[in-house]
Every structure is written in C-alpha cells, then in structure tokens.
Amino acid sequence: MSDSADADGPGRIIWLASYPKSGNTWMRVALGHLLGVANPEGDINQQVSCDGIASSREDFDDVVGVNAAELDFDQIDVLRPRVYECLSREAERTVFLKVHDACLDTPASEPMFPLNATRGVVHIVRNPLDVVASLAHHSSTSLNRAIQSLCSDRNTYCASPNVLHIQLRQRLLDWSAHTASWLDSPLPRLTVRYEDMLAHPFATFATVARFCGLEHPAQAIEQAVEGSRFERLKNLEAQTRFRETPQGNTHFFREGRAGGWREALTAEQVQQIIAAHGPMMQRLGYATGLADE
Amino acid sequence: MNLMSYRIHGLTLASALALPELVAVPEEQPPDAVVMVGTVPERLPEVEAEGPLWMAGKGEFLLAIPEVARYRISGGNRILVDAMPGVAAGDVRAYLLGTVLGMLLHQRGLLALHAGAIEVNGQVVAFAGHSGAGKSTLVAHLRQRGYRVISDDTLAISFDAQGQPWARPSFARIKLWADALKHLAHVPEQLVRDLTRLEKFHLLVEEDRQDTALPLASVILLNENKLDDGIHLERLRGLEAVNALSRQTYKPRLLKAAGLGTLQFQHCSRAAGRIQVMSLRRPKALAHMNTVLDRLEASWNPAT
C-alpha cells in the first residue's frame, strides 16, 4: 500500500503508470532530461523520451511470434506478462515503459505486470476534477463524455473489434479502480501527485530520481526540472507540432496547472465526480468539499 | 493419405488439409513441401531458443497456438499440423498460412519480407511495415486503381544467377478489418471471416491470381507521419537501406532463433543493391488515402 523507498524489484522495467492526462508525458520529459536522452536544444519532439509503451503492438508481435492481429483480446492479455519478462530479460539497463492500463490480472489469473520483470512503478496521479477537463480537450469530446469515461468501469482504449489499433487493447476501468489497482499492487511503487510535481518540482522529481536509482547531483535534477518546465514545453510546441498530439487537435500542452476545474466544470459536474470518486480522492489528499481551497 | 496440390510463394505444397485460399494445381511430383496431419510433441527434442508460443531446434521450428493447434516445421519441406479437436478449419489455416508458412520460407533460405505488394508495369512494388502499419489497406486501395495484387502480408523473394531479386505471388486475397472494408465499400458480412473470433475478413481478388515471379523493383517502408506536414517519399541508400530492409524481414526474432539471421541480412544487402528502398511517411487517416495514392503513382509514372 505505501510507497517504497527504492525500485528494488528483481526485473529491469520501471513502469510509468498513470490514468491518461495525469502528467505521464511530463514525467517522461523530466526523466528524458535526467537520463540525457532528451535534447535540451532540440524541438518539442526531442524532449519526450522513454523506451516505449506497455501496450506496444510491435513489441508484442516481435516477442510472441504470432501477431496480436491473429489473437483475441483475452489471448493477447494472457501473453502480455511473457512479453514483459522477455523485454526485462533482454534489457541491458533499466527500461522505462509508459502504461495506461489498470494493474490487473490476466484471464489466466496472474499479474499482467509481473514482479519478475519489474524494477518498480512510478505511479502518477492527478485530481480527477482536472483530469476531466484535460481529457475532454485531448479527446476532442465534451466534459460530460469525459466524466462518463472516468466513471465507467468498462473504460478501455484501443478496444474496437473492427479496426487494427496501433496499440493493444488497454483496460482502464473507472478512475478510482484504476488508481486503486496500482496503489494496491504488490510491486515496489512510488506514487507522485501531478500537483506536487507542479508545486514542488525539485523535491518531487528528486524523490522520483532516487526511487529509480538515478544518482544525480542536484544540478542535474535542476536541469531536468527546467527542461520539463511547462511554459518551455508549450513554447516549443508552438514552434513545431508535437507527434503525440491527437489528430484534429492543434496542441497537446494545454494549461499545465492545478485547479483549472473551478472554471471549467459546473457545480453539478463537480458533484458527479466527487460522488463517484470521493473516497479515492480523499485517499490521495484531494479536497472533496466544494468550499475547500 | 490423399494429398491435394497447391501453389503459393512459387512453391508447390502437397497438403492433407484442404487449403481453399491457395491456387489448386494438378498433382506434381515431387512437391516442394508437404503439409501433413499428425501428432506434434509439446517440445522439440533439441530446443535452441524459445518464446511464449514457439521454439526453435535443429532445422526445426514449433509453433503452439493455445486451443487451436501445434505446428512443426522441419527442413524447409515438411509441416506437421496437430489441431485440437473441434477447432474450425479456418482457424487452423490462419496460423498455418501465416507464421508457419513464413517460417517454411525462412527454412528454405528465401528472403521473406513482412510486406504487401502489387504489380506496376510488369515489376513488383512492395509495401513493408509492422502489423497495423497499413499494408493491406494500401494494397486494397491500389487494387481499386487497377493494380494487380501480388501479396497482402508476406512477400517471398528469390535471387537469380545474376543477383536479380524476384518476387513470388502469394494469396488471391487481402485480409482486412471491418472498418477498412467499409471504406472500400465492401460489406464485411458478405465475405469470408478470417478467424472465428475476429472482425477480420478475406477480400478475395481471384482475378489477380497468377503464379509467375516478377522482378522486384522497390520496397517502400510505411511510416506514419504524425507531424501533419504532408507526404514524404524518399529513397534510402547504402547501409541505411540494408538496415531498413532487414528490419522488415518476416518475424526477425524467430529468424534469428532459427539461426538464419545472417543469411537474411546477406539477402537484404543483395536486394538493397538492386532495388529502390524508399521510406513513405504519410498521415494514416483514410481521408488522406487518395492523396497518398496519387503521390505513389506519380513516383512510378513520372510526368514526361
């Protein structure tokens, strides 16, 4: 349940786990700068770097030898732990993989993200009231639709049976269940809040670096914080299109702040989210009274 | 056992299983390979490398699809199929005609690319890319513009004495997902389903059937352009072309496990010296398809 001091699992993968629109990309920029794989002088597309995403179709097809396109969703899920074990076994250093899936068991009743492939989990959370507004923008959908998806225990990505998605199907569940699945997993884990990354970037990121076993002087941490500063990324994005921006959207980096929900959501929408997710919000230290400041 | 004869990838297969996706031919002796039905062990006698569903041994390869079948591919000329009881024949064939046949091509020392292909002016233009890159969809749209389909997923290539690569025709069908079919104005429900559990169908292109190898002119690598800045088609040269091509070999990990990685790399460097290796970076949305097709056609029919 509680945070671990170190990512001391027996495997090589550090999962960068989050519900969508919770700061995962931001974390990857900071890590990219710390690891020296982001280019401080480069354009926006040279800022974000990690080793891939857990739902990569390409990695799955390569390791399994049979294309995911020839298997159904359950068969794919059963095989995913084997893919991660293989990637971990073959890795020559720590591998950072982004994950939006909930941390669930496969249909074969074993963990999708196995301990023997895992070094640790950096779990990023954000106030669901702000996630909603960010998600609505990212998915070019209404706030009410975004709220629905945060409240649906069937929320999935890349799950249409009628097309070949670029990624594997991901089961997210609703926001509370997604968050609980990672908080309650037995993997060595550090949970960080988006709001703390924003308010105390140095301290928060220094903790992440320590957890990941990245021993760097304070100056390097400061540079990573500067490299991932929101205004800087937004300016870079104004000059060059960011490849992770969904088609039809003009920009990815939107507001990068906490509390934007006060202007974005109606009282009714706020109540709806709190009614569904109040207990988990409280568990993470997010205020659930409307008058709270 | 009564065997039926078929042609695919320039090979004659004598098969104990009916393979309606392939071109049936009069019995010919001897066949290049046989497909038999029998018991396949859970493990090969000598396992040199293995993955979640496969193992490689000396000159042998085993693929095990849970609840469907086990397949043993040996010596480049023998496939043994051990299907679970009650499994739909089409499901058994889907893997047989996919990974299994691909490994047979590798064992025979052919260059096998993960590529769809069409005929352009008597030569072959191939489109390579991973699953989901858009090979089949592009090939199906090119067919609507009148090009003959040579392959939709796996392209077998051999070299003649002068080192010229020749592309061998594959199936008379394109596998497409329901949404892609609708965009082509086909009704999925009227087509043969690929695997019973998936919304993927066979678009038959019977009239494209042929059995003659054609010179390979170019391999175009399919990449998605996520930057919204148009369509880019550029030629790769030298080592870059060789490396790009070798990344597009069919199942590179299985190939290496079977000890055939070096041979395939040699094939790729030979081929790269004789063909154009190009990179196509384009938006993937179907709304851009016609512009992409125009651009491709302009590249092989330059305005005079």
User: What's the CATH H-level homologous superfamily of the largest domain in chain B?
Assistant: P-loop containing nucleotide triphosphate hydrolases
Beta fraction of chain B: 25-35%
The oligomeric status of these chains comes to: heterodimer
* Total helical elements of chain B: 7
| General form of chain A | globular
Measured by DSSP, the beta-strand proportion of chain A falls in 5-15%
Strand count, sense and closure of the main sheet of chain B? Answer: 9 strands, mixed
Descriptive notes:
The complex is a heterodimer of chains A (293) and B (304). With 293 residues, chain A is an alpha/beta fold. Chain A has a single domain, classed as P-loop containing nucleotide triphosphate hydrolases (Rossmann fold). Chain A has twelve helices and six strands. Chain A has helices at residues 24-35, 57-64, 73-90, 128-138, 143-151, 175-183, 194-199, 201-211, 218-227, 230-239, 261-264, 267-283; strands spanning 13-18, 95-99, 118-125, 156-157, 170-171, 189-193. In chain A, helix 1 crosses helix 9 (218-227), helix 5 runs parallel beside helix 12 (267-283) and helix 6 (175-183) packs parallel to helix 12 (267-283). The two termini of chain A are 28 Å apart. The model of chain A has no long low-confidence stretch (mean pLDDT 92). With 304 residues, chain B is of the alpha+beta class. In chain B, 25% of the residues lie in helices and 35% in strands. In chain B, helix 4 (238-247) packs across helix 6 (261-274). Chain B is globular. The mean pLDDT of chain B is 92. The interface between A and B is medium-sized, with 33 and 34 residues.
